[in-house]
Design brief:
This protein has two domains: 59 residues, no CATH class; 242 residues, Intergrase catalytic core (hpI Integrase, Chain A, Orthogonal Bundle). 30% of the residues are buried. 47% of the residues lie in helices and 6% in strands. By secondary structure, the protein is mainly alpha-helical. It is globular and about 65 Å long. A hairpin with a 2-residue loop joins strand 1 and strand 2.
Length: 346
C-alpha cells in the first residue's frame, strides 16, 4: 500500500482509510478500488489476528458503488452481430490485420476468456479437446487467473480449426516466438519494445493487449457494428450462453465468474456439462444463421458423430520440441514430425 508509505500498521485509522479510498478513486475505477480495498481489509484482519491492532478500520469503510461498465468494454452483441463479427474475423479482417490477431480474437469470442488469460495461453494448456485456463499475464509477468481458480472450456469445432490454422502458421512462418510455447506470441518488434520498456533482461513474447483492443475496434467498424472490446466479447459469450439455455452454475464455471456462493464450483461441473454448454452455443449460432432453423443437441457420450469429431482433433496432433540457450531472446528451435512429446494438441 504505497499510499501509507512507512506508516506503522497500528497508525492506520478510519480517517486514513477514507482518505486513501478518496485518493484512489480519482485515478482508478470503483471496481478496481474495491478489489484493492478487499485485499487491504484482509491484511489488517491478519494484523488483528496477530494482536498488532485491536480493530480493523478498513472493515468500517463501505465499498464504493459500482455502475455498469461503459463504452466498448460494456457492449455486447446479439447472435446476429456475433456471427457477423466472427465472419469478418475469418475473412475480410485478415486482409488488413495480422491473421494471428484475428485468430486470437476468435479464441476470446468462442471461449469467453479474459484478455490476460488468452495472452498467457500455452499449447500445453490444450488437452483432450479442452482448454485448461490456469494463468494470466500482467505487465509481462505471468500469474494466476483473476479469481485464482483454474477452469476448463470445451473447444467448439469452429475454434479447433482456428487453433489448427494458428499452429500451422507458426511453423510455416518459423515465428521467432515459437520457443515461448505461447499459442499467440507477439510480433518480434513489439516484444523487443516491451522488453526495453519494462527493463527486462529476457525477451518476453506476451502480446500487448492494446493490439487486440485496436483489432476489435477495426473489425467492428468493418462490419458496421457497434464498438466492442475483448471484454465485450467475454460479456457476449456469457449472454449467448444464457440465451442458449446453459445453466447458471455451468456458465459461472466456464467463464470464471466467482462469488461467495460459488467457491467450489469448478469441482462440481463435469466435462459433459461443459460439452453440452458449448453444443448449445453452437446450435444457437446455427439457428441464427439458418434464420430460425435449429439443430438438435448431440450427446457427446452416445453420438458417434461427436466421437468422430473428437478423433478428428487427435488426428492433426503435432508437437514442437523446443530448446532455448541462455541469453536474451537467443533461441534454438528443433522440430520433429513424430507424435509424442510436447503436443500442440493431445
Amino acid at each position: 500500500m504505497q499510499y501509507f508509505g512507512d506508516w506503522w500498521v497500528d497508525m492506520i485509522d478510519l480517517d486514513g482509510v477514507e482518505r486513501w479510498q478518496s485518493t484512489m478513486v480519482q485515478t482508478m475505477s470503483p471496481p478496481t478500488v474495491n478489489g484493492i480495498h478487499r485485499v487491504f481489509r484482509l491484511i489488517l484482519e491478519r494484523a488483528m489476528h496477530e494482536k498488532i491492532i485491536h480493530r480493523n478500520p478498513a472493515r468500517a469503510v463501505p465499498t464504493l458503488p459500482e455502475s455498469r461498465t461503459k463504452g466498448s468494454r460494456g457492449q455486447t452483441y446479439d447472435p446476429i452481430d456475433f456471427q457477423t463479427f466472427v465472419m469478418i474475423c475469418e475473412t475480410e479482417a485478415q486482409k488488413v490485420l495480422p491473421p494471428d490477431v484475428c485468430r486470437h480474437l476468435l479464441l476470446i469470442a468462442w471461449t469467453g476468456m479474459r484478455l490476460s488469460e488468452s495472452i498467457a495461453l500455452r499449447w500445453s494448456d490444450i488437452e483432450k479437446g479442452e482448454i485448461h485456463i490456469q494463468r494470466s499475464v500482467w505487465r509481462g509477468i505471468e500469474k494466476s487467473t483473476k479469481t485464482d481458480d483454474p477452469r476448463r472450456v470445451v473447444i467448439p469445432m469452429a475454434l479447433r480449426e482456428v487453433l489448427k490454422a494458428q499452429a500451422d502458421w507458426l511453423l510455416e512462418t518459423d515465428h521467432p516466438g515459437i520457443g515461448s510455447g505461447l499459442v499467440f506470441p507477439g510480433a518480434p518488434r513489439q516484444s523487443k519494445g516491451g522488453m526495453v520498456r519494462r527493463k527486462m533482461s529476457v525477451l518476453g513474447w506476451h502480446r500487448a493487449g492494446s493490439t487486440l483492443v485496436e483489432g476489435c475496434a477495426k473489425i467492428a467498424a468493418m462490419g458496421g457494428l457497434k464498438p466492442i472490446s475483448p471484454q465485450g466479447l467475454r460479456r457476449t459469450f456469457e449472454d449467448l450462453m444464457r440465451e442458449a439455455g446453459v445453466e447458471q452454475m455451468v456458465r459461472r464455471a466456464m467463464s470464471g465468474w466467482r462469488t461467495a456462493k460459488a467457491q467450489g464450483i469448478y469441482a462440481t461441473v463435469k466435462r459433459t456439462d461443459r460439452e453440452k454448454a458449448v453444443t448449445a452455443l453452437e446450435d444457437l449460432m446455427t439457428a441464427t444463421q439458418n434464420q430460425g432453423k435449429s439443430n438438435q443437441n448431440t450427446d457427446p457420450d452416445t453420438d458417434p458423430k461427436a466421437e468422430n469429431q473428437e478423433n478428428a482433433l487427435l488426428d492433426f496432433a503435432k508437437y514442437v520440441e523446443l530448446k532455448r540457450k541462455n541469453g536474451a531472446g537467443h533461441e534454438i528451435r528443433t522440430r520433429d514430425v513424430n507424435l509424442g512429446k510436447v503436443a500442440l494438441y493431445h
